[in-house]
């Protein structure tokens, strides 16, 4: 199964989104598809064997919309796309202006009739039906041309969208007026007033266009966060090639190039520091506010800002592979995904337009039957058609999700889908991994004792064997052993390792210089039948000091033991406290020993500890926490960094990976904390709460206009108060409903993480 994200063009409301979704789903080989109206994109799951991008795009074209692939342009739309979008915006602006000016004249012309007053300042000819006809025609058919085109497209597919409603509504008002203009005697002979309603057609078209104009501007702002991210990338890099420094456009930088970064400069792409020392402000990418120290061997991230030092680095990733580009892509995908809360809105939009048409026809028939007044019946029907626009409904969830995920990215929280954004505030139990999650994951060897005593040459020999094997492991503990060996100036390239094998959660082994070297937990060595009694005395002290103890055996005989310390992250204790304050049950889950785990848990105030848990058991552990009570399952989040956490991250309702951890953990998770600061979990939960509240407000705004508006438009209050809804007011209300939804979503941009609870 493959995934694909397409940017869509030409959708005007949520019914369009439904249509595109149906069109894509009807292509054989497409497994699933999500169309997001707010983000204007489609997320498609498909079978590469049976269908390709071209076929999907053809189906979209046939449905009357256009698309382009996000994957071709990981950093946004290209220049041609931008130009066509700009041209579209200019045309819309012109139409709003032309429609606006003409509408003002028509409004003035119809004032005497509407108010029944004699207004001498308004020239009489404006009142003339034929003048009004001439003024209205271009507004209806040129300014409102896109409504007709879209309505025609959907008619051909035997569907209806909000464009259909607008065309029917304004078209009815227009045709009725034309009829009265040409045959002025027809209604008068029947004893009815023969008013024209040209201004209704013109003003409603203009108002809807104005609404769309404002809406598209506001919608542009919902993705401001991502544009900000994309804008972070600098244009040039100072490359050193063949000893010569030169400025090179960013697109021409290649992997393995050497790049010089001067004080205060932006780092152009990702790489590894070769010479020089500096501090770097990574806040824009990781959300980490303190500058990070960089020295040779450290990784630097493109788009972050260098502090006071200067350094040279070797490029490791460019273009689409850079950290920044990956973030942008992930956020774009998340913005296009659907939150479960949206299903209700989707279901409603599906039958909305046909239902409205039925109500409109019923309104007409009832009014005409009861009053015999053709004019009144027409006007109420037009009002119903105009006010019942489902577009606010389609905007309610996606706009908030776009803003929410964008805000997350700005705070160093990568949310992979709307679903986890929605779920995060419901988390009841949070499970934290120890090494690399609560601790820095930069362990150092603090103790080393061998069976044969402290004879230096013997110690270094054993260290050499151990480090040579550990060099093949990705585990943080392995890195500690290697680093320790390097600090003792032990050569690591003297021997090759054969038959290397990693027992995840237990240790590693390999053959070095014809010796079988095994390094790992006491339990594992016991399983291998290796006696650890000779060095037992050290274990207790080290573990009480929160150190991890690992054992080294050569050819099945215990040879040494190491104590490895891994400091807690500075924010861990505060984060745990804040989570507990939010009412969450905090649990520690680790592969490490009981005493070590207990010591650390005590330091940061966690009471529930599960230690010596194997990787395969971690997922089962999460499952049992989820189903702890038989009646109701609990929402469990897992936070982890290592390969050993991946199954648990996938099992949890919300899997949260540490951005500095392994790629496998990040891939298995729903949310990534880029900086690894656990306090970001608290922020994520707050953000989730704020987003859901925002969506609920939006849905309220969207529904309330229709629930109140449709009955009034249908004239339900007429028998009681004599109130009818003027179609112009209906048009204004419908534009307002979309606007209130989008501006409410934009309010979410003011979200500030609360640092004290
Ligand atoms: N490469 C290795 N070298 C030495 N010991 C190892 C290695 N990998 C694992 N171990 C041993 O196995 C134990 C469990 O490892 P595991 O990766 O499951 O958990 P962890 O990383 O220690 O803790 P956490 O689950 O909190 O991240 C470690 O504490 C260590 O003793
Ligand atoms: Cu609409
Ligand atoms: Mg870990």
Automatic annotation (TrEMBL):
GO terms for cellular component: plasma membrane. It is found in: Cell membrane. GO terms for molecular function: ATP binding; ATP hydrolysis activity; copper ion binding; P-type divalent copper transporter activity; P-type monovalent copper transporter activity. Its EC number is 7.2.2.8. SUPFAM superfamilies: Calcium ATPase, transduction domain A, Calcium ATPase, transmembrane domain M, HAD-like, HMA, heavy metal-associated domain. The keyword Nucleotide-binding applies. It catalyses: Cu(+)(in) + ATP + H2O = Cu(+)(out) + ADP + phosphate + H(+). Keywords: ATP-binding, Cell membrane, Copper, Copper transport, Ion transport, Magnesium, Membrane, Metal-binding, Nucleotide-binding, Phosphoprotein, Translocase, Transmembrane, Transmembrane helix, Transport. One of its GO terms (biological process) is copper ion homeostasis. It is a multi-pass membrane protein. Residues 2-68 form the HMA domain. InterPro entries: ATPase_P-typ_cyto_dom_N (IPR023299), ATPase_P-typ_P_site (IPR018303), ATPase_P-typ_TM_dom_sf (IPR023298), ATPase_P-typ_transduc_dom_A_sf (IPR008250), ATPase_P-type_domA (IPR059000), HAD-like_sf (IPR036412), HAD_sf (IPR023214), Heavy-metal-associated_CS (IPR017969). The chain crosses the membrane at residues 92-110, 130-152, 164-183, 195-214, 348-368, 374-396, 699-721, 727-746. Belongs to the cation transport ATPase (P-type) (TC 3.A.3) family. Type IB subfamily. NCBIfam families: ATPase-IB1_Cu (TIGR01511), ATPase-IB_hvy (TIGR01525), ATPase_P-type (TIGR01494). May play a role in the osmotic adaptation. This is Probable copper-transporting ATPase PacS. It comes from Cylindrospermum stagnale PCC 7417.
């Amino acid at each position: 199964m493959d995934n694909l994200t397409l940017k869509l063009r030409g959708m005007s409301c949520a019914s369009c989104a439904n249509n595109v979704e149906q069109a894509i789903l009807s292509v054989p080989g497409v497994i699933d598809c999500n169309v997001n109206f707010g983000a204007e994109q489609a997320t498609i799951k498909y079978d590469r064997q049976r269908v390709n991008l071209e076929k999907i795009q053809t189906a979209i074209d046939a449905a009357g919309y256009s698309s382009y692939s996000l994957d071709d342009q990981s950093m946004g739309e290209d220049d041609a796309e931008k130009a066509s979008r700009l041209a579209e915006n200019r045309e819309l602006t012109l139409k709003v202006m032309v429609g606006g000016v003409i509408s003002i004249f028509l409004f003035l012309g119809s004032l005497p009739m509407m108010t029944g007053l004699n207004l001498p300042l308004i020239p009489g000819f404006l009142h003339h039906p034929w003048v009004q006809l001439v003024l209205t025609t271009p507004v209806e058919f040129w300014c409102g041309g896109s409504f007709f085109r879209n309505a025609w497209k959907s008619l051909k597919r035997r569907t209806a969208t909000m464009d259909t409603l607008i065309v029917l509504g304004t078209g009815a008002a227009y045709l009725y007026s034309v009829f009265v203009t040409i045959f002025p005697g027809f209604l008068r002979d029947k004893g009815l007033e023969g008013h024209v309603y040209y201004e209704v057609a013109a003003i409603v078209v203009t108002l809807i266009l104005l609404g769309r104009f404002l809406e598209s501007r506001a919608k542009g702002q919902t993705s401001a966060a991502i544009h900000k991210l994309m804008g972070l990338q600098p244009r040039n890099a100072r490359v050193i090639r063949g000893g010569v420094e030169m400025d090179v456009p960013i697109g021409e930088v290649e992997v393995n190039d050497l790049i010089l970064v001067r004080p205060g400069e932006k780092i152009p792409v990702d790489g590894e520091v070769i010479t020089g020392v500096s501090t770097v402000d990574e806040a824009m990418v990781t959300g980490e506010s303190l500058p990070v120290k960089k020295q040779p061997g450290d990784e630097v991230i493109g788009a972050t800002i260098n502090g006071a030092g200067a350094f040279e680095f070797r490029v490791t990733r460019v273009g689409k592979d850079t950290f920044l580009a990956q973030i942008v892509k992930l956020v774009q995908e998340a913005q296009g995904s659907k939150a479960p809360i949206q299903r209700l809105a989707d279901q409603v939009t599906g039958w909305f337009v046909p239902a409205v048409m039925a109500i409109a026809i019923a309104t007409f028939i009832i009014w005409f039957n009861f009053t015999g007044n053709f004019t009144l019946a027409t006007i109420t029907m037009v009002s119903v058609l105009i006010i019942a626009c489902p577009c606010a409904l389609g905007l309610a969830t996606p706009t908030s999700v776009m803003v929410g995920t964008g805000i997350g990215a700005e705070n160093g929280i990568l949310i992979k889908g709307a679903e986890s954004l929605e779920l995060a505030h419901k988390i009841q139990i949070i499970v934290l991994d120890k090494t690399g999650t609560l601790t820095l994951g930069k362990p150092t060897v603090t103790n080393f004792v061998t069976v044969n005593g402290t004879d230096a040459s013997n110690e270094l020999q054993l260290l050499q064997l151990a480090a040579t094997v550990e060099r093949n492991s990705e585990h943080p503990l392995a890195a500690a052993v290697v680093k320790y060996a390097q600090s003792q100036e032990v050569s690591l390239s003297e021997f090759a390792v054969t038959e290397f094998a990693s027992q995840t959660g237990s240790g590693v082994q390999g053959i070095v210089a014809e010796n079988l070297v095994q390094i790992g937990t006491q339990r594992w060595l016991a399983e291998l039948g290796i006696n650890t009694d000779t060095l037992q005395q050290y274990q207790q002290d080290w573990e009480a000091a929160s150190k991890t103890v690992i054992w080294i055996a050569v050819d099945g005989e215990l040879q040494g033991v190491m104590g490895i310390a891994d400091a807690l992250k500075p924010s861990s204790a505060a984060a745990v406290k804040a989570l507990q304050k939010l009412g969450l049950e905090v649990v520690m889950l680790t592969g490490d020993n009981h005493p070590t785990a207990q010591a650390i848990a005590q330091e940061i105030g966690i009471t529930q500890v599960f230690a010596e848990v194997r990787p395969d058991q971690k997922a089962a552990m999460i499952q049992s926490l989820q189903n702890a009570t038989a009646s109701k399952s609990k929402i469990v989040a897992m936070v982890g960094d290592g390969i050993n956490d991946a199954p648990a991250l996938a099992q949890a309702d919300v899997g949260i990976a540490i951005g500095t951890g392994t790629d496998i953990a990040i891939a298995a998770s729903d949310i990534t904390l880029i900086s690894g600061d656990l306090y970001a979990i608290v922020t994520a939960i707050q953000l989730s709460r704020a987003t859901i509240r925002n969506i609920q407000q939006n849905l309220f705004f969207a529904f309330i206009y229709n629930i109140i508006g449709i009955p009034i438009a249908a004239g339900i209050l007429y028998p009681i108060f004599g109130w009818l809804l003027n179609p112009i007011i209906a048009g204004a209300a419908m534009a307002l409903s979309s606007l209130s939804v989008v501006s409410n979503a934009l309010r979410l941009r003011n979200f500030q993480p609360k640092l004290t609870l």
